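Re: your question from the hallway

Yes, I did run it. Sequences:
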Amino acid sequence: MHLQESIYVALDTLWSHKLRSFLTLLGIIISIWTLVAVVSLVQGVNQYVGDKIARLGSNVVSVTQFSLQEMTDQKLFRQAQKRNTRITLAEYQYLHDHLQLASEVAASSRRTLGTNLKAGNHSMTDVTVAGVTSNSIKLASFDVLAGRFLTPTDESHSNPVAFIGADLATQLYPGVDPIGQTLNVDGHNFLVVGQASVQGNVFGQSQDSFVEIPLGIYRSLYGTSDSLNVQVQAPSAALMPAVTDEVRVLLRSIRHLRYQDPDTFGIIGADSLMSLWHQLTGVIAGVMVGVSFVFLVVGGIVIMNIMLAAVTERTREVGIRKALGARRADILSQFLVESAVLSSVGGALGIALAYGFTLLAGALTPLPFSLPWLAVLLAFAISTSVGLFFGIYPAQKAAKLDPIAALRAEA
Amino acid sequence: MSPPLPTSGLDPVPAATPPADDVVIQTVDLWKVYQMGSEQVAALRGVSIQIHRNEYVAIMGPSGSGKSTLMNLIGCLDSPTKGQYWLNHQLVSELDDDELARIRNHEIGFVFQTFNLLARATALHNVELPLIYAGAPAAQRAERALEALRKVDLVDRRLHRPNELSGGQRQRVAIARALINNPSILLADEPTGNLDSTTSNEIMALMDRLWDLGNTIVVVTHEPDIAEYAHRVIYIRDGQVARDEPTKRGRERAARTAPA
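Structure:
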């Protein structure tokens, strides 16, 4: 009934004390800002990472020496180190020949640090050198831009041929068609037969700085002690669990593991990568949300304080309104609406700042930032509730004022 | 020396029947006792008065006489310790806070010495305020507020704020606000106390006009020449009615209306 009047009075008061209102609202503004910004940040990064992980290959699981859990938990890792054995070429061959459900099984081995590539006068270091089976192109996230990928013949004859990423083409062969050129990898010459399409960056890390050579040559160059990474592709997403199970059963059987023994290898899928990621970002988001709630409580107390001051300042007004027929409930709702409006304005400012922040972050980073509507609505609701809650006590104080004493108060 | 204080509200209240039709205000043995620390102080000691419809009454008395207390009770801003107060045939001495708020809204138009306008609201909005608490729809509010401002000749100042108006204009806004709900009584507390004599006369002339239009007016004042505008003066002293008599104007009017 008097909601419009109350909101009008609230906005008018807020506007007439701009600086005071702003200072009062700082706590709410900062807390809503961090809350919305963190949610949008986490969501943006999740989307980005999810997108990149999905691009690692659809419906693909990797068979590795250690599982993700073992790699991210020191205690588990130490236990696994004693138990897990590396994935051997024989095991790859066995999986390749015996997996019934999988549509493709490929193997690779790679190193990045310390590699040294030369072509003519140009050179690059720390390029990812990967030894791969020729069928790995079917699981790859890149396309063949020019030339060809490695063939089964290259594999069986151990031809010294190389398939290069886009970065190598531009840095080692500027202005020249790299196909047919010679590439020196750690002292050994290869013939460049194909070039990959551009994949871009993930977190500023180029995905185009690689060279792929036949797995056999790789193992003769760098030794056979590295564990292989076996990639298994399922025909469809629905068959992923079945394929994963089949891989586990086959590997356990050739490793002669008993029923109660734990796996001595790891199977990493896009979903396990994603869940690990969510675990990490969940912790960060949780801490930030906790911090912003502390701000929120502080902001609420500041609002309560300023509303108490407002009640004292406007005792005369309360007296006038009561004399003219305002009931307790009218005065109560007026001050409640006022503190709710005050804190919602703070919430709106916080949301606006968070929006500016996401725009800025979106412009400066490759992350796809957006302002999630649910978070915006929730933040607005939270800030309004804080105002309502911390406004109860001052509003009750105003509602209980004696009209005669209030009318006598200094204006 | 002075009559004894009532020991409690349990004292039998003199049986009072609802007042006659044209009686707007009737108080029966009205007491107001304040607790000052351990001491009880009686501000009113059994006031019984009657005011009829379309009367113009002044309440006078020195400070400390209890006239402010009486005004607060008549204005339903306070409840008596003992006694009955009938306002427009309703026994308001028994009502609670919220019911009193409703009575103030519907039955009483206040005019204060210090105007008591909301400083940040326009004249129009100030006049609308009682309608808001009466629950009138917004469109009707503005229309009725404009009508009330027309009665006090301030339509052209409707969008001015109090600090942009002269004292006399502010009091006229307050009078328009007091009239907006067609109250049973217009209750003015020292309405000219903050005004110069020319403006005072203007305000009192306006009061006369409102009386002519049929309003019941009660003016609380300590200025004899303001009281002279009324037709009847009730003198309060030591919490009791000391005298209750017609003024010169009241006698003239009685003589005019008396049968020849």
